[in-house]
């Protein structure tokens, strides 16, 4: 994140040494921990059993989990800290070929295997998101370059495209093209939806995706609302509209596509935490929904509990919490 407070808010309530350790190891978002096992995380300096327990609970609340030990291949080792290639690239030379070469140089075989096991497919280099930051700082925002990178179909390039994109320069047609290219949840929910959330057309586009009947589009639509609610002022939303959306989730979540279940569950939790006018309604909706089973191919089902997520934030005094920034 762009400041210490924002960095801490990405993680469950745990010690600052644990948060710093995760960041130093290249992890900047909770969902990135799906690519490593609990034993890997325990090897990170500053992270102990209590922190891992809190991280496990936070992942479960989003329908995610650590990588299982029996899914690992090769030697077990802690996540590698982000390292620079030592190469200096001039801003004027930042064309798509140069960026692709740099991303390939930053790739790690072990990280690549983790991404592939989470749903990515070739081509992919295996670049830790934290390792992209130095290059992102040099480029800042470049929509034309972002479009070229996204069109490569390379997972790392597509992710980096979201980092350097200029959201307000994108049209609805651009976002529709991006969501069509998003072939698994890390792209749909954490690249496309995040980028869309920084635009003035976010709600209109998200509404259409939610009604599409297509799993990842629906997931991205609900996720976009989560990003919006967690960042924008309450008065920017229609209370009546959000109340209707809560009712829709309650009535349909148990029969929704699996990935969409997670985003719908997160929507209810986010309304209950970040949108004060409907806090009580969202909590009651979550209780009436009850536990939601999200099945995952080749893995144990996740049980989603929005009510518990809201109640934990009540205990922490976090109701009304807003992120300062949508993107890291």
Would you summarize the structure shown here?
The chain has 328 residues and is mainly alpha-helical.
Number of strands: 2
What's the main sheet like?
Answer: 2 strands, antiparallel
Tell me the strand percentage band. under 5%
Number of domains: 3
Strand order of the largest sheet: 1-2
Q: How would you spell out the order of helices and strands? A: HHHHHHHHHHHHHHHHEEH
Distance between the termini: 4 Å
* Percentage of residues in helical conformation: 40-55%
Mean pLDDT across all residues, rounded?
86
Question: What's the overall geometry?
Answer: globular
Stretches with pLDDT under 50, minimum 5 residues = 1-8, 70-91
Q: Write down the Rg.
A: 19 Å
Explain what the structure shows.
The protein has a two-stranded antiparallel ribbon. Strand 1 and strand 2 (299-304) form a beta hairpin. By secondary structure, it is mainly α. The protein contains 17 helices and 2 strands. The chain folds into 3 domains: 1-77, 5' to 3' exonuclease, C-terminal subdomain (DNA polymerase, domain 1); 87-165, no CATH class; 198-328.
Set out the fold topology.
Elements: H1 4-9, H2 16-24, H3 38-42, H4 49-61, H5 96-106, H6 109-118, H7 133-139, H8 143-151, H9 155-164, H10 172-181, H11 185-196, H12 202-210, H13 215-229, H14 239-252, H15 258-274, H16 279-289, E1 292-296, E2 299-304, H17 306-315
Antiparallel strand pairs: 1-2
Helix pairs in contact: 8-9, 9-11, 11-13, 12-13, 13-15, 14-16, 15-16, 15-17, 16-17
